[in-house]
Design a protein that fits this description.
The complex is a heterodimer. Chain A has a single domain, classed as Vaccinia Virus protein VP39 (Rossmann fold), CATH 3.40.50.150. Chain A is 46% helix and 24% strand. Chain A has nine helices and nine strands. Chain A has helices at 16-30, 34-42, 45-57, 74-83, 96-108, 145-155, 175-194, 197-209, 213-222; strands at residues 6-9, 12-15, 64-68, 88-93, 115-117, 130-136, 156-167, 225-233, 238-245. Chain A has a seven-stranded mixed sheet, sandwiched between helices. Chain A has a two-stranded antiparallel sheet with strand order 1-2. Chain A is globular. Chain B is of the alpha+beta class. Helix content of chain B is 64%, strand content 12%. The longest helix of chain B has 36 residues, at 118-153. Chain B is flat, with a radius of gyration of 29 Å. The termini of chain B are far apart. The chains are: A alpha/beta, B alpha+beta. Chains A and B meet through helix 3, strand 8 and strand 9 of A and helix 1 of B.
């Protein structure tokens, strides 16, 4: 395995072409219990984080919003209400199982949101099409984060916003406690509730391998975004980055 | 978590004061930092004309500094105190935001009505308004009573007209002293001191 073509899958080093397949396996495995596990793992806080992200997006009625790695469609649902009938929200995910869950939930909520299976590194949209692009808890699973960020920047209109909601680096004094939670409690909860300890072990490892707040900010700037700023949520367990296309 | 909650409160207030959206929208993406010692808070204007707390690394486009002593005067609606607020950076942005914050009103009756219904909400808010007004009136009466006592019965505070008279007297005295100094100077120039006197002074 050459260094140039290897990447991280949690703490393991795998071939780039293998990562997408392995991530897909993880999400096929957790799709049915995804919401339940999110609620248990975050004590329901993930709903507040998503609402906050929608709140600071500055989306107006009539805007076009792209929800990348939208999974179960939580954000698409909130955005659909914000943009109204004159706007457009597109839900995308690379994983068919997760997208199926999201699409069904949209329909159950009476929302007609197009659900599209696509790779964030090769978005099938024209340049300058969206007012807002959001990726929540998805960027860390992408093989080439830089390419994905550049694609997100490409599809944004001038003045459009990219929001990245992702696990990040926790405040140092809490790191020991967070490690115990991530590596002991999280896989145990995965085993008991979703009968899948391995996927949740991957979740904990992938969080640790993800760039910290300042590194991600720099990556966004390198992808062509400006005025990049971030919010630490729950002492940095999660961070919301926001950048503008100028 | 404080930022999340503060943002939600701000956005709720802006949603109740829709007139603010049009005022703020031209400043989308800009940030204003408030210094009200010991608190520092940075607000950012969103693209939909709403407000949010700014993130960890936001660079403010304007800064508004309000000393704690001024804050009490502002709360007491002292218009002259507004002139003493220090604004740095984009003054237009800062004054627009200050105007929005100053005129924003919380429609608490509407919020309560969504929980307990219109009629009880109306009654509760009427009782609330009455209580608050009564408390303000009582506080004003008490302040006026104490000020009268300390001015008339047990003088501790100076009356406004007395202070103004003192200021006028000091001004007159200063002018008189200046005039006297000039006269003395002129006299000294016209009649130089005798050599013995000069020697006496220089020693």
């Amino acid at each position: 395995m050459s260094e140039e073509h290897s990447t991280h899958f949690g703490y393991k080093t795998v071939n780039e072409s293998e990562k997408a397949k392995k991530v897909a396996e993880v999400f096929h495995s957790v799709a049915d219990n995804y919401d339940l596990m999110n609620d248990v793992m975050s004590a329901g806080l993930h709903r507040g984080w998503k609402r906050f992200a929608v709140g600071v997006s500055g989306v107006n009625p009539g805007d076009r919003v792209l929800d990348i790695a939208g999974g179960s469609g939580d954000l698409s649902k909130l955005f659909a209400k914000k943009v109204g009938r004159s706007g457009q929200v597109i839900l995308t995910d690379i994983n068919a199982s997760m997208l199926g869950v999201g699409r069904d939930r949209m329909l159950d909520a009476g929302l007609s949101v197009p659900a599209l299976q696509c790779d964030a590194e090769k978005l099938p949209f024209p340049d300058g099409y969206f007012d807002c692009v959001i990726v929540a808890f998805g960027l860390r699973n992408m093989t080439h984060k830089d390419r994905a960020l550049a694609e997100m920047q490409r599809v944004l209109k001038v003045g459009g916003r990219l929001l990245v909601l992702e696990f990040s680096k926790v405040w140092q004094p809490l790191s020991k406690l967070y490690d115990v939670y991530s590596f002991k409690l999280l896989p145990l909860m995965g085993k008991l509730l979703a009968k899948d300890a391995e996927s949740y072990q991957y979740l904990a490892e992938s969080i640790r391998m993800h760039p910290d707040q300042d590194t991600l900010k720099q990556m966004m700037i390198e992808a062509g975004l400006s005025k990049v700023d971030y919010y630490n949520l729950v002492a940095g367990v999660v961070a919301l980055h926001k950048g503008y296309k100028t | 978590m404080l930022k999340v909650l503060s943002t939600q409160v701000l956005q709720h207030l802006i949603a109740q004061n829709r007139w603010a959206n049009d005022l703020l929208r031209p400043y989308a993406g800009k940030a204003v930092q408030f210094h009200i010692a010991p608190l520092i808070a940075t607000l950012t204007v969103l693209e939909n004309g709403s407000l949010a707390m700014a993130g960890e690394t936001a660079q403010p486009d304007a800064t508004i500094t309000i000393p704690p002593s001024l804050l009490l005067r502002l709360i007491a609606k002292d218009d002259s105190a507004k002139l003493m607020i220090k604004i740095e950076g984009d003054a237009e942005l800062a004054s627009t935001l200050a105007k929005v914050i100053n005129h924003m009103r919380w429609d608490y009756e509407r919020d309560i009505s969504q929980v307990i219904g219109d009629v009880p909400a109306y009654k509760i808010s009427a009782i609330g308004k009455h209580t608050v007004n009564a408390a303000i009136e009582t506080a004003e009466n008490l302040a006026s009573m104490l000020s009268e006592y300390w001015q008339e019965e047990n003088p501790l505070l100076a009356k406004k007209r007395h202070v103004e008279q003192l200021i006028a007297d000091v001004d007159t005295l200063r002018a008189d002293v200046e005039r006297l100094e000039k006269r003395l100077h002129k006299i000294t120039l016209k009649q130089p001191l005798a050599p013995t006197q000069t020697t006496l002074f220089t020693e």
